[in-house]
Amino acid sequence: MTNNLTPILEFIVLDAEQNPAVDEQGLPTLLQGPVGVKDIPELIAKGKIDNLTLFAELQSKHEQYAWAREYVDYLVERNEVEQHNANLPAPVANEDGSVTEVEPKPLPVAPTRPAVRTAAEVLEPYQKQINKLKGIECKGVFVSLNESNQNGLSALKSALELAKEFGEAEAFFPVNFNAETAQGVQVVTLENEAEFKQFGFSFILARKAYFE
Question: pTM of whole model > 0.85?
């Protein structure tokens, strides 16, 4: 049995001599799995992208631990099958001269260990969403490239046009834009029309890239 434990040595309890600590069936005890594993797609859906690299690393470790748990389950099943096959009834001779034998059960197949994924590999399927949430930088604030911020900029543009109609464009600025970010709502102060146009243009260009 010890040889069968070689693939999972890093996941099981070892004795003082660094040999697997096993029970009377020769089965090991798993170490505690990674703590703090989160549902990464759910975190991203909620806009919570802080510490994603940490959670991706935990997810990678969890995948390896889940395989080790499956491997222990395989060992349990293999033990049961081997015990069953070792205690098969003797062949029975029939009156017609034939012999009835109980077929042994086939041994289970060990689960294949998945490749160890880096944090970047874990996050790769979600990178587009992550980048949209991180957004573009404006005056030290990273503004998410979402529809809400786009609507907010459109509303400011309409308000500016109205102010111009009444000859109050100069009084319109400075104006505060309540930007949605991965850290919550933050205020970006736009000092003048040129600054507003530059920010709006950069935002639209960056957001456009996600629809091409």
Answer: no
